[in-house]
Amino acid sequence: MLVGVLAKVVPEFDALVRVSDDKSKVEVEPKYTVNFFDLLALEEALKIKERFGGTVKVFSFCRAEMVETLRSAIAMGADEVVAITFDGIEIFDNYCRAKLLAEVIKKEPFDLLWCGRETFDEMEGVTGAMIAEILGYPVVTLVTKVEIFPQERKVLVERETDRGKEILKVAMPVLLSAQKGLNEPRVPTVMGLMKAMKAKINTVELPVLLQELGTELERMIKMKPISYVPIISSRKRKLLKGEPVEVVKELINLLKTEAKVI
Amino acid sequence: MDFSLTPEQEFFRKSVRDVVQKLIAPKAAEIDEKDEFPWELWKEFAKLGYLGLRYPPEVGGMGADQITCAIFYEEITRGSVGFAQSVIMNMLMGTHFLYRFGDEEIKERCFIPAIKGEKIATICFTEDQSGSDLASIRTVAVKDGDYWIINGRKQWITNGPICDFATVLATTDPQKGLKGLNFFLVEKGTPGFYPGQVIKKMGCRGTVTGELIFENCRVPAKNLLGEEVNKGFEYLGEILNEIRVMTGAMALGIAQAAFEEGLEYARKRVAFGHPIGHYQLIKAKFAKMAMELDAARLLVWRAAWMLGKGLPCAKEAAMAKYFATEACLNVVDEVTRIYGANGMAEEYPPQRHFRDARFLLYGGGTHEILSDFLGRLILGKL
Prior knowledge:
The complex is a heterodimer. Chain A has helices spanning 36-52, 71-76, 94-105, 127-135, 190-198, 206-213, 217-220, 244-257, and strands at residues 2-6, 9-11, 17-19, 26-28, 32-34, 55-63, 80-86, 112-116, 139-149, 154-161, 164-171, 174-178, 202-205. By secondary structure, chain A is of the alpha/beta class.
């Protein structure tokens, strides 16, 4: 089976993030990791490969400085990583990214494409669906369980909804987005790390890809940010005292009425 | 001169850090509190293959260079000192002489299972009357036909009470001092070999440290780990620098963990209307700690680099161990001060780092011994 995985490089959870003084951009400390939900997608792809044989290829769209982070996908067991790289500009248009990734992915006949349900930085969760639409694949989001039937060229998926679980049978090729609960991403072995350290990551430079497509980035981008507004939070402390049962009641009340989070 | 890690080493560092953060760090406080060997964690971690990191692929290892190994020692220690000590014992001191001198049978029975984590290894130097003064050890080995008979007691043995085998330093002739030393393999179950008292420690809890007793313990002649008799001290010299670099790297791990906790605390803890990191005296502490940590890391990496190149580095390794340890002790002290009274509370990590760091003063050579050694090297024969 040929399985593709979309993986985004995102800031580490403890990377310092701030809005620039002129509010035109977000400045992020250069500490990167592979997006958690994409790791779920990769783990599932690797399990499918272990069961049915085949190849797992990871695709990403990132700045050149982030490419090394993708070695962790090889450390986990991916056969190849292909990264579209760019420098000096920030591309925020999801459709633009999806179009460029689709151009690279469509060169091979994938049976399955996986992505994470959303990324921790932008939390939009649309790129995967856009790629599926461009490639003409059906898409199933929020997948928590999957069964493959290679002979029938079908997959049986379970997905989460507000009303409960939905079970679908879908023909391949299909794009699936991974939801928490699908699996637990494996911890790479040191042998995996050593292999990843020596592996070659295939990169496609954005200008080269655009030239192949005979287009320019400015013509592809339809969305640009105007400004960013930082969130200013102040910390309030309240110490709740008393018997545990009473304290819990008061805490729930405060979370409902003051913090308004439940 | 390029001071940076290679992209591969950076990747390795980040990956190991992620593994430690996921598997080990969350259990560090529990390991410290319970002071029991974490068998489940050991099995889980052993599967990842790190125990064979420094050995060549031909024997099932990973063939990592010395800087990569130093990175590993730092990162795993940063997660939990108690766990790291046991892991590193299996990776380095507890298995090195079996790899160097053990025959195929010994390698199959002991070495390979140890680097897979299936057996626990240790090495025994210290006795109640001799730590730094190896010439004075009183564990004696006497040849008896095709056997050696070992008698003695070893103290402060990391993994000792739970080990499956031990590399034991014994003398064939106490009168010969350093020239009578030898390493022997003694396996669990050998009559006359058994664990003694377990030592309750203020730090490095989770690693089981204690006494090993040898009473007319007979081992086959091939359990002498060495090509010749009485060359033990010479063989020790082969890995002494590596042990010192390793200890320096462990110091970096403890210091870095404490430093980052101190940083987070200084950014959040408010006093007189500002985070305490706002105040000059706190800023000065971080400036000094950062400089010491940076300098210590460069010394450790330089020594590791020289080790990897096969360059003589006794001075550099001793300096690295000494400086990194002293830097670590300063950092863990300062961080507990930054935490104020919370620095004493068990619910906050700094007190654990403070307690754990003390072992650095003894492991790999006391600082009094290292100072004397360095002084003699620098001043030469007078």
